[in-house]
Amino acid sequence: MIFRTKTSRAARPALRQVRTTAALRPLRHRLDPARVEEIPFRTSDGFRLGLTRVDTGDSGRPAVLLLHGHTASADMFLQPETRNLVDVLLDEGYEPWLLDWRGSCRLPYNETGRRYTYDDVALYDIPEAVAHIRGRIGDDRPLFVVAHCIGSLSLSLSMTAGLVPGLAGVVSQGVFLTPKLAGRTSLRMSVAGELLKKRIDHIPVDFRKAGLRSKYTPLFALASRKASCPDPTCQILHNSAWGTGASLFVHENLSETTHDRLAELLGPAPLWILPHLRRIELARSVVRWHDTDHRYRALPPNALDAAGSIDTPVLLLSGSENGLWLDSQKLCHQVLAHRQPQLDVSYTEIPGYGHLDTFLGRGAALDVFGHILDFLGERR
Ligand SMILES: [Zn+2]
């Protein structure tokens, strides 16, 4: 007994130290904790990411990697208050994997860490996570990817660079190779550029954290104009999408619990990413940011021009009311059908859905996930 007590006391300080350095915010889920394997994962350029595998006890299942949108996290696929995508995948015989790439709000450096562009996500985060999963599951098991928003946009760059070969299929939600932002959004992005000059480098979403009298107050005030919901966090996301003027979801599609958790599900948006986003928007294609840095030579300068190298079936999904990327997916389907008719690309529109609610919506399991399962089921 005495010996044991001494050992645990001696070990305690070291443990505390490990916990306080770079711990990810715990995932919110209602799975058996013993089944949730969190894998220490660092990219070759030194970013600590989150990689999570849900252990099903069945090593023969096809794997599905889920990629969140920028400022969201793996939590968007696990929300305990609704039947979520992970629940549905488990029930249908898949093994879910979740990557918190460097734009995740669960990561401890999310507001203070090194800056990056989507080139880095496409070059390091996604291919290295896919390679890790491949190493674990072997070459024989199918590996699918379901990706949302910027997760999907970055994936399109990885795919056209040939960095994630041999996927069994990809489901892309919201935007893929032909990004087209809501009209007012591009204008507001210039406004955001002005904010950058005032040394504001993140747009917060949690009004309680930002405080009543802060340099952000005018942003929240702008977002509250013509808003029908009194919640400032909801206003800045639903009515203004971090001050860009776009809308991230159809309000009535969220459950009350999800609505109250928005500040946890979506973190502050870094303004320093806007130059890359603006270049992408102007090109109406996913374009590489780094032109001269040789480390990024593996990425195509323009992903749409390199679409012929896509080697896997793609399902493009979008809500009919997407208030951020509009009909980008429909456009992508048309452009690819014309330019690359040999590719296996289909398009499904979800009536009455916006952008984030295709995953967060209280009825997403009924209205959206069936399309994803049909696609995976035909190719597993
Ligand atoms: Zn609201």
Q: Give the full name of the CATH homologous superfamily of the largest domain.
A: Alpha/Beta hydrolase fold, catalytic domain
Order of helices and strands: HEEEHEHEHEHEHHHHHEHEHEHHH
Instruction: Report strand %.
Output: 5-15%
Please tally the β strands and state the result. Answer: 10
Domains (count)? 2
Ligand species? zinc ion
pLDDT < 50 runs, ≥5 residues = 1-20
Largest sheet: 8 strands, mixed
Mean pLDDT: 90
Mind telling me the C-alpha Rg? Answer: 21 Å
**CATH fold assignment of the largest domain:** Rossmann fold
SS field, number of helical segments: 15
The CATH class of the largest domain is identified as Alpha Beta
Cα distance, first to last residue?
54 Å
How much helicity do the residues have?
25-40%
Spatial strand sequence of the major β-sheet = 1-2-4-3-5-6-9-10
Q: Sum up the overall morphology in one term.
A: globular
